[in-house]
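Quick start: what a row looks like.
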Amino acid sequence: MQGDSEARDAALVALPYSEYAPQASLMDDMRTLSVMWFGSIAGDTHQDRLESFYKNQAELYDGYRARMLHARKPMMTRLMVLCLPPRLVCVLMLSRRPPHALAAPTS
């Protein structure tokens, strides 16, 4: 039975997550928000428009995101990858980390 062996070969793997929270000031947050709200968007293609939107906030956005998206850490620590043979991969977000999940591979 091929289906039974595939079910045994499936692995639930936790994605690696490391804490990243750069320091930023209130003025940095205000600059990020003003660029997001009032920045000009230019370009002929979708990619050009995305790059013009993000270029002025890129250096500050990581710090802003770390403080403003409070659910990011719990969400990222609950992401799991279900690897099914031969090449199917599913990314799952679980309500809690299952005890049988494998640790993420380290390189």
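That is the whole record. The chain has one domain: 2-93. Residues 2-93 form one domain.
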